[in-house]
Amino acid sequence: MAGIRLHVIAPLVLVAVNKCARDPSVYVRKCAANALPKLHDLRLEEHASSLEEVVGILLNDHSPGVVGAAAAAFASVCPNNLSLIGKNYRRLCEILPDVEEWGQIILIEILLRFAIARHGLVKESIMFSLHCTESSHSEKDGSDVNFELEKDSVDRGGAYNFELATMVSRCYIEGPDEYLSRSSYSKRVPFELHGVKFTSGKTNDDVKILLHCTSPLLWSNNSAVVLAAAGVHWVMAPREDVKRIAKPLLFVLRSSNASKYVVLRNIQVFAKVLPSLFAPNFEDFFICSSDSYQIKALKLEILSTIATDSSITSIFKEFQDYIRDPDRQFAADAVAAIGLCVQQLPKMANACIDELLALTRQEFLINGSGDGEGDVLLQAIMSIKSIIKQDPSSHEKVIIQLVRRLDSIKVPAARAMVIWMVGEYSSLGDIIPRMLTTVIKYLAWCFTSEALETKLQILNTAVKVLLCAKEEELCTFSRIFSYVLELAECDLNYDVRDRARFLKKLCSCSLGSQGAEEVTNCLPQQKDLPHVVAKCIFGKQTKLVSPEPVNCRFYLPGSLSQIVLHAAPGYEPLPKPCSLNVPQEINATVRGATYSDSEETDDHGSSSGPSDEENASDYGSQNSITGSSGSDHTGETGFTSECDENADPLIQISDIGNASENQNAVSQSSADLGELISHRALESWLDDQPGSSNPCISKQTEVNRSSARISVGNVGNEVKPKIYALLDPANGNGLKVDYSFASEISDISRLLVCIEVYFKNCSSELMSDITLVFEESNKGLDATDQASLANER
């Protein structure tokens, strides 16, 4: 019925779901939970509160199958109503390992959101320690771990890991779109370190039980469950316990290619924030021949991130093998990974540069023959460029070797990169300035035969050399620059012509005799203005600017958005820390009552049996009151005595003192057992000394013991029987007949069942001579008993 999705029958479906949610059968209740998202899709606002009420009932169920379906219904119907979770939080954590796999994924996310909304982030977690270094260093219990993290971050690039961890944690809570919408990357406001937004994982019981119940799921057969459990430990676990997610994630890498790609996407983020997490297992990220290109690219990036001084030698040997791979695009990525490793470990710069320079000497690379060969050469020169940027003065000979190979390099993008180095480091050392004149003349001579990007780079390099030229070389460079401008103004490409006109106006004061007339007509302030503008545009970079990560969009682990790198439909970031205010009464109920429930179910050996009987009694009692067929006659039958206020209570408890006090003992009746006795008094009545097991103490306090007498009344009068319809007034000419099963034992035989039959005249005429006929299945109408009622009420 719910699958029909018609607004007309939605009220009927809601009534059926509300009834089935209290059914004794587990499968019926599970079907009711599966029908709730379909009802919610109809977008009927008047049924929203009813749907949330049914979800709350199903979340309170003791069957794991029902809880899994109820979690899916909660995520669809009311994902932000976390107060429903607070009432059953601990019981849901305990039942989590028994829920079906796909229900575990949803339930883990719900429990994580509640823990953060209720208690906030954990102070001992990575998300807190890497973001708030000063606060975490002040904690004495985590000083060793903080020192290890600080040492690791210094070896790998200083504050970049801390900055990345800040970005990840804020993207988890704020969402990447809100985080990236801020005006400046460097002026983003850090977290507000109020005490209410953070909790301690060592003292918070809710956090401890969540981590304890999700730990077995790290070795689940379902890859998605493993990733969801790892996400909880990544966000909430203390720093020393995060390492437990490494081996389960690496084990999942041996599964299918689809699962492998998803897991690698998440490991990529984990490794960037905390490289030491996967550094000991770097061999698991070596490339296999059966890996797809996407998986190979992710493994290369992870290897370049987790490389250490002890593992860089093995990783570098692997990269050398990857360069010879037939897939030249993958080979180019391997060359780029070498440059990333050198940025992480500057000690390997000399060895890596020698290998990269060897690539620039290979004929099939420098000529660009074959598919992808030009990309390999370009990546090699780009890696060399990134290494030189770290320490230009120590790599002067590398620049000279590249300039000497310029004539043999035929790839336009690679030639443009080498020409950029000539202009950028034109004043570096003693050899490069002396060879500038020859290099600039060579570039002017081959200008007309170059590609577009190379021509534009030649113009930029000529301006840089002209601005930094000495007085004795200024005339020569001005003539060469003027010659290049004339060639560019007559070029067929309009981009080159526009660039030439722009540079001619910008450097008119430095062109010597070519711009003498313009110079004489300019004011002193106007003479210096173009030179200042040119210095700002083409000036040297004096500081090494740490690049902002290209991919600054981070989403929750295990989400589809983390794979596609944009917010997928239905994605929601984590709630704001401590945004959920749970009343203390409910919180106390969650902390106390749930443990007693779990112990009670464990004592019975099975949680599904008692729950079915309990739900069945609830369902029967509700139908006896609100049923459509038998709810209107209960007030006129023999059950009116139950509503008597003067009736005796069902349970009576009397406190009996010592022998001297027994004469004055007064029995007390109470409707609220919590106000009458305490837990300690009840233990003393049961001859159990609370808080001690010493027999000597029990003998000393034997005189002060109290005792109690508990008397139970007639339970049969307090329980309303379930009434069934035997004859409808429409079919019985106004006569309505209902029956119920009596609790008395038959006087004839114990194998017989007693039935109470209720007659009601719904018509305006009197009825008489009513006959009851009992038919047996194998005999027709042989045995009949007749009973006549002369008068009908």
UniProtKB/TrEMBL annotation:
Family matches, as Pfam families? Adaptin_N
Chain residue ranges for the region called Disordered: 594-643
Give the record's GO biological process terms: intracellular protein transport; vesicle-mediated transport
- Looking at the keywords, is tRNA processing present? no
Q: Which GO terms of the cellular component aspect does the record hold?
A: endomembrane system; membrane coat
* Keyword Transcription attributed: no
* Keyword field: Membrane, Protein transport, Signal, Transport
Primary residence: membrane
Q: Could you tell me which residue ranges the AP-3 complex subunit beta C-terminal domain spans?
A: 678-786
**Record field: compositional bias (Polar residues):** 618-640
Cleavable signal peptide: 1-22
From the Swiss-Prot or TrEMBL record, state where the protein is found. Answer: Endomembrane system
Q: Which family does it belong to?
A: Belongs to the adaptor complexes large subunit family.
Q: Tell me what this protein is called.
A: AP-3 complex subunit beta C-terminal domain-containing protein
This protein's species is Rubroshorea leprosula
